[in-house]
């Protein structure tokens, strides 16, 4: 009799931990409806659930790590999607939306009014593995099988075990990428304080990928890849930080601009024309000369009309595909005010 009971208990335990995930429907904080199976699993996506609440200190601490993993696994564009579900009735979709803004989260999330608490409830029962409180992570394979209660160290390997790659079409994309080599030149002796090379969609500010930070200081990278997932209309832009006047902007630049205005020595180089247009109106006028005088005297700390301290030619470069080849992307950096 004891032997029979043991077999029945073992059978129950195996069934309990091998059940498939129940379906759910949520409306995320952006108003997008997600059906677990129809919208994700049946489309071949592995789904990562994060059980949390917006004021949970460990959840807040984990947020940057989760966002980094989300980007590494394709930012929801391919075969992996992340969804965070608040377990509290007091967390509304508006609260989740604010949490995402505050914590830099870009993957979907739902509060109580979006169905988050109800969708998360089953994973607090221990049916699919231990529940240790928030934050808790759940990995659901496309066939509905569930991993829960695992170590963060196993996170990537468990996602990969579902067959996910985080890339278009899955599988090995080593022969399906283009290598890009970004170069920037400066026609004067100016040296920018801080240059950031950004990969982003052409008509959006997110997601953005800091190329130097991701590659460890290299401007040579493969796209698409796990580090740089495929984007809609991808472009490279350069962001430069620096004061409006540095040690290369001098009174001599005033003389050169004055000579240009008097047509004694007109500028012939594109960088000079751009560097002398201190209010970005497409023309060089006496007002630009006055603006540079004020900058040299320390009377202003920024140029008119939002003119940046540095500009690049071109302003952005789109990524064109050439599988298996390397494409050079060449920028020229211009220090506004330095026309010498």
Task: Please describe the structure with a list of short key phrases separated by commas or semicolons.
single chain, 340 residues, alpha+beta, 2 domains, 5-stranded mixed β-sheet, 4-stranded mixed β-sheet, 10 helices, 15 strands, disordered N terminus
Describe this entry's structure for a reader:
By secondary structure, the chain is α+β, with helices and mostly antiparallel strands. It has two domains: 13-161, Glutaredoxin, CATH 3.40.30; 172-340, no CATH class. 28% of the residues lie in helices and 23% in strands. The protein has helices at 2-18, 36-40, 57-72, 93-103, 116-121, 155-161, 211-215, 251-261, 270-276, 286-296; strands at 25-27, 33-35, 46-52, 80-86, 109-110, 136-140, 146-148, 178-185, 194-201, 209-210, 220-223, 234-241, 310-313, 316-318, 326-335. The strands form four sheets. The chain has a five-stranded mixed sheet. The chain has a four-stranded mixed sheet with strand order 11-8-15-13. It has a four-stranded antiparallel sheet with strand order 10-9-12-14. The N and C termini lie far apart (96 Å).
